[in-house]
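We modelled the chain as a single entity of 170 amino acids. Its sequence is:
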Amino acid sequence: MTILIHPATPALTTGDLTEGERLFLWCTRRWVGAMFRKVSPTEEILPALRAHMLEGAASDIDDLMSALAAHARRTIDVRIRSATELSRDEMLLCRTFTAAGDGHQDLAATLMSEMMFGSGLGTVLPVLESITAAFAVSGLDQSPAVVTRPARQPHGRVPGRSHILRLQSL
């Protein structure tokens, strides 16, 4: 008899994130949701950013997500805004956000290259730096870096649905 034991899948929930990371994640989820509903993504995220005096970051987040969609290496998994557990791609986005905020541009570039072709990195990295700088000025810290922990089994919960960002470069 053979018994296979799979290692625990790393899980990250919104409760594991800093306030800045949660707002950034919320904006990315809201941006994707707005694209599905065919409404202005900037208008969707502006009220939350305005509450933190980050109005200027709305256009940067739109630029970041638009570039990611245009240069996506593969389908990007972005969950609906009420999901508590992050997808692997959302973990990458949060880690990239944290790396850029901590001044680790090489790490941020490496992480983004997991999701997008290199041709878009030249556009995305300066925009990401601008976003993290604005968050830092407003007092929303990106550090400490996100940590993973073993996945928990949902107790009577249905796993969160995902929006899939299917915009691929041609």
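As a brief sanity check on the tokenised model: Residues 12-146+161-165 form one domain. Residues 145-159, 165-170 have pLDDT under 50 and may be disordered.
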